């Protein structure tokens, strides 16, 4: 199978990095200018950049912020791992088995159609307000999105390579790693990215609706106090953390899986 591998993806050069950085800086600057213009014409209803920056500094210098942040990240990690593992497993089985897909497809469609807050509202009414109840609702809300991506990737695999594996009687490990793995690796990474994206959004919603502590709870508390500058500051902290995860984890993983799958 090594002969089938294409040329390696060249590393990102400083020139390419700068070329990608310039549009990002321009976009952020444009957003800042538009936001500040709206803030200046909103009679104080929309906080300006200075007020948001002041809130951000105050929140970052408050010790309790880091306790809430660690708690939210722990919940995020649990939900991400559980939803990714379950979603990839269910999606892969659906891609291989038509009967299992026929059984699961209506459930996945229903799961995709249910609004996210409904998971938590029903969980609160039926199971109580304990943290593990909210986590269960969170995981159930994310799984359908991962299943959909994994199922699509496995179903769209090259069936000719499956036939070739049977004809040449390739060892099971060779088939799973070199034949199937190379095809679905990019889909698996995309499903992981989807899982993380939905997990961090829904974990904030879960904390706002069901928990007294965490970043989501603090955002809801700022909402109750009519402090939009604090709400935006908390959201910016989480966005920056997710961006760091994207650059440090998923971008290198994308390059490695893209290189390996060729």
Description:
It holds the Pfam family BPD_transp_1. It is found in: Cell membrane. Belongs to the binding-protein-dependent transport system permease family. Its main location: membrane. Keywords: Cell membrane, Membrane, Transmembrane, Transmembrane helix, Transport. The protein has one domain (58-260): MetI-like fold (Orthogonal Bundle). The chain has helices at residues 14-40, 49-60, 63-96, 98-113, 116-127, 131-155, 159-167, 172-210, 215-224, 228-260. Helix 4 crosses helix 6 and helix 9 (215-224) packs antiparallel against helix 10 (228-260). It is 83% helix and 0% strand. The protein is globular, with a radius of gyration of 22 Å. It has 262 residues and is mainly alpha-helical. It has 10 helices and no strands.
Main sheet? Answer: none
Structural class: mainly alpha
Q: Please, how many domains? A: 1
| Envelope shape | globular
Q: What's the CATH C level?
A: Mainly Alpha
Unreliable residue runs: 1-9
Order of helices and strands: HHHHHHHHHH
Mean pLDDT: 84
Distance between the termini: 11 Å
CATH homologous superfamily designation: MetI-like
Question: Strand-residue fraction?
Answer: under 5%
Family: Belongs to the binding-protein-dependent transport system permease family.
Pfam family, one: BPD_transp_1
Membrane topology: Multi-pass membrane protein
Keywords: Cell membrane, Membrane, Transmembrane, Transmembrane helix, Transport
């Amino acid at each position: 199978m090594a002969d089938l591998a294409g040329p390696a993806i060249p590393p990102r050069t400083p020139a390419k990095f700068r070329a990608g950085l310039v549009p990002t800086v321009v976009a952020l600057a444009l957003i800042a200018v538009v936001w500040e213009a709206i803030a200046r014409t909103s009679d104080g209803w929309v906080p300006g950049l200075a007020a948001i920056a002041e809130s951000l500094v105050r929140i970052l210098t408050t010790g309790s912020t880091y306790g809430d942040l660690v708690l939210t990240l722990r919940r995020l990690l649990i939900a991400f791992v559980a939803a990714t593992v379950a979603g990839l497993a269910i999606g892969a089985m659906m891609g291989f088995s038509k009967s299992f897909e026929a059984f699961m497809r209506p459930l996945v469609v229903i799961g995709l159609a249910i609004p996210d807050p409904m998971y938590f509202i029903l969980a609160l009414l039926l199971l109580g307000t304990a943290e593990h109840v909210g986590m269960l609702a969170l995981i159930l809300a994310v799984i359908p999105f991962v299943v959909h991506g994994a199922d699509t990737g496995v179903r769209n695999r090259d069936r000719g390579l499956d036939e070739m594996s049977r004809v040449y009687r390739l060892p099971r490990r060779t088939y799973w790693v070199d034949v199937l793995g190379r095809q679905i690796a990019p889909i698996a990474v995309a499903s992981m990215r989807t899982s993380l994206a939905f997990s961090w959004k829904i974990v904030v919603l879960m904390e706002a609706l069901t928990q007294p502590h965490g970043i989501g709870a603090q955002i809801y508390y700022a909402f109750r106090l009519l402090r939009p500058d604090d709400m935006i500051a908390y959201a910016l902290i989480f966005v920056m953390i997710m961006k760091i995860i994207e650059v440090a984890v998923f971008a290198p993983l994308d390059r490695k899986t893209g290189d390996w799958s060729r």
